[in-house]
Request: fold
Amino acid sequence: MAIGLALFFLLGCFTLLFLMRQWLRRQGARPGVQGAFSLVVIFGSLLGVWLSLRLQYPVGPSLRFAGAPLPLVIFQKENERWIDYPHPRPAMALLLMANAALTATALAGPLVLWQALRQRPSAPTP
Reply:
């Protein structure tokens, strides 16, 4: 289940990043915008890895997730003790990559949207 989810997000995010990059090139975006896109993707990937390895957040009084946006480990409170339920290592590696790709895509999207709105021809005023 976790491997399928990670592969789905990896494929979707890489496809979106590829399409965003191609769109920027076809629209003749300035080299500065294309460079900013690359930097945002790199920063987003690093942020996604950091969030995966450092962030823990409560989901309820007896449930916590470690890793974001997709959890790598689930902690459940049983008999006043936190018990961890980690994914297998191959699934964790894929989830880590999916988190990096998902964060990079989420941060790169507004840059591409800004570029699209900036290049849109303005309507003539009467």
Notes: The mean pLDDT is 90. Residues 39-108 form one domain. The beta strands are 56-60, 63-66, 73-78, 81-86. The CA atoms of residues 73 and 86 lie 4 Å apart.
